Amino acid sequence: MNIFKKTFRKFVILILVYAVIIMILKSSLLPANSYYILFGFITFFVLLIAYFYIRFLTKPLEKIGSHLQQVSENKYYELPEITLNEFQQIFIDLNILTVRLKKYETKLSKHKEGFNIIIESIKEAIWIQDKKGLITISNNSFTRLVDQRNVKDQYFWNVIRNKELYDLSDRIFQNPANITEELDLKDSRFLASTSYSNLTGETVFILYDITEFRKLEMIKRDFVLNVSHELRTPLTSIKGYLETLEEELSKDQLALVDVIKRNTDRLINIVNDLLTLSRLEHIEDLEIEKITTADFLQNIVNIFEFRLKKKKIELAIDIQTRENYFHADRFKFEQVIINLIDNAIKYTKDGSIKVIVVENVESTIFEVLDSGSGINQKHLPRVFERFYVVDKSRSRKMGGTGLGLSIVKHIVNLHDGTIEIESEVGKGTKFKISIPKV
Ligand code: ADP
Question: CB-based contacts of 311: which residues, under 8 Å, 6+ apart?
Fold first, then answer.
């Protein structure tokens, strides 16, 4: 039975008892004086009972009120047990709730502590900012980086004055997304990574210091470029002398020199490919121009005319685009198509090669297809890696270096394009390159 019903029932009983007593008194033949004294006395007595009963009822309510207030201030204590009161069950339930809340609070503060330990132990600068750009959480690495202690609840642009970071934050504000990009900050190079939470509308920023990594990369690049450069002259000279020597040698000696020549050629190919790759890595801007598709492809096919005839391979060009031109860095994009056709010829015994050009709204798409040996699926994810060759002895025989496709991929990336490969052993290979329209 609910509290209201119980209380109401008790009041009704009290009033009924009172009324019955008054009626009995009235019907007894008491003198008027005694009647009024008795009436007054009984009324007083009933009011006293009502007073204590109301007190008895409201006292637990006061206790519940002050208990809830204390709990809201994170002061957890249990209410005393009460019996003989309508509020007994509420006290019990409140106590269970308090114990649970206390447990959650302890758990939460442990998680918070753990979170703080983790965030502080990370050497990357981390901060979280809300929709308005106010910093809500940050770690020590961040405060060290910005050289300020109290950064909480400050606008991040007041803490770090950096245009690239401001632009990044602005882009996330306009279009919430997870972004990773490099930027310069305080004489160092950073990789900034952002992670947006749909739930809270906050963004986590992490700055990875990649200054040393970039320096090492530069040293490695310069080293490869210099070594390749230094090797090219002596290798070309060795090849020249070998060719002179050939005229004066016997048949047996010629066979030996031929082996040396083939290996020298291989070395020259590697050095040339390394030089191409290193030069590409040093490039920051492309010289994009409008190129007539048909002329561009025909000029490349002409280079291979002799090899195609020799291997009896048909090469067809099929341009299906509405516009007869595309935009790219002519010299570099030539290298892409040359490398792909070169591979297609190398790895096709007899059969055909097709270069198809199609388009969609955003890109011009070049497909180079051959009916050659194909590549096993397990090698496909790795063929664009440097020095990765599927079959070492076959590649060596063909004069391959394992660098051709990495050069292709690098140039496609420079054009903000994509490259895909599909292949089936014994059936052929298809490379699909998409480069954005200007
Ligand atoms: P390589 O100089 O050895 O040809 P690439 O980087 O150009 O090096 O190619 C990597 C490997 O991918 C090659 O070793 C070859 O096995 C395989 N490959 C590339 N293109 C083709 C193709 N059109 N058909 C079959 N295999 C190919």
Answer: 345, 348, 349, 350
